[in-house]
Amino acid sequence: MTEFLAPYMPVISLIVLAIVVAIGFIKKVNLGFLSLGVAFILTMVGGLKASAVTSGFSSSMFVTLVGVTFLFGMASQNGTLDLFSKKVVALVGKHTVLIPILMFVLSAFISAIGPGHIAAGILMTTFAMYLAFEMNINPWVTALFAKLGANAGCASPLSLTGILAKELSEPLGYSGFSLHLFLSTLLSGFVFTLVIYIGSKSYKVKADNPLKWSEIPKFNRNQKLTMAAIAIMVICCIGFKLDTGLFAFIMAAILILLGAADEKAAIKGIPWGTLIFICGVGSLVSVIDKLGGITLVSDFLNGFMSEKTAVPIISATSGILSWVSSTTGVVMPALFPIADQVSQQFASVNYVELISAITATSFAAAISPLSTGGAIIMSSYSASKETTNEEMNKLFKNLFLLSVANVAINVLMAALGVFSLGGLFT
User: Fold this and answer.
1) pTM of the entire predicted model
2) pLDDT tens sequence across 167-225
3) Do 302 and 341 meet the contact criterion of CB atoms below 8 Å apart?
4) Torsions phi, psi of 369, nearest 5?
5) What is the distance between the alpha carbons of residues 312 and 334, in angstroms, rounded to a whole number?
6) CA 27 to CA 362: how far, in whole Å?
7) Burial readout 287-297 (b: 16 or more C-beta within 10 A, e: otherwise)
8) Phi and psi of 185, rounded to 5°?
9) What is the largest CA-CA distance in the chain?
10) What residue ranges in 220-300 does DSSP mark as E strands?
11) Helix, strand, or coil here: 237?
């Protein structure tokens, strides 16, 4: 049976993924649990070992999400985030229209100076979520601005993405493109942020009952300790590039020992259902990848490539791959060598333009709930308020559709030659 179905498993796996997502939305069940069960069935039918399911369950993402939501859960439980948010709102005053812009710019800056999209995204997205709830504005859209900023600034020469691009390209004979790559990714993030800013009417953002600084109480002992813990985490994770999730556990443990937060309340605040949702779907996608489903999609797109369509097609390929895999771990290492081959095959196609399209579009897809960026938005949202499966499924759908739109815009930019930046840096 397995041998008979083997040639058809790539197509079957993609059909199964579509069915699982459809069932989740229709029945309003947790897609994580459903995905894990279906992934196991696929491994049996496809002749894979059961370990293919567990290996696809991202333990690093799970630990990161638990650690950060646990720490910020404490900060929420003892009133730190609530009071801090009020003080920020008071500083902005009536000019609350600046909040979305502030989230993007600050996240992009933090990401560009070293920590990259993951650390900066987790820290800023979580803060943006709590700030939005306090301001009574759209929380996940506000958090999205923070994540878009973190992605936009991540390809600087100082960050992991910029360094990785250099290390991947130098053996192929390419160098001196760091500024081009950084500006391309920054431009990509800015364009979609502008689209969301206008589409969500964020220029009309106005908090209810603007606060006055003099009317806001001072931080108490527990809140000061919590703020210090978060500040230390930011400094250590950004300055010394320590693991954000694991370091969050250290800070959380210290706060517990100092009696600054209620441990039981914080544990109850961790969105366990959402974590299973995220990692379970990730396991299913990993199995589909092992069965050849992802390769089938990629090969299908590459089959249409020509001199005029090379850049937009490789852009689309990077976006699709990024929906189901890591940009820095999979997409860039896999597609940069292909970009070299394409640039050699078509004389008019520039390598730097290709890798700029790859990197920018891949990060455009990274707001998907299947990635860390979308995942932290979902987990922060459910940790900040009580949610239902229906509500989380809707958020999952919205983030994924926005991710699709972002990829489509980047493919259009690639087709228009935007990622060449007018040849100014090549």
Assistant:
1) 0.72
2) 888 888 888 898 999 999 999 999 999 999 898 887 777 765 556 667 778 899 999 99
3) no
4) -65, -10
5) 17
6) 31
7) bbbbbbbbeeb
8) -70, -40
9) 74
10) none
11) helix
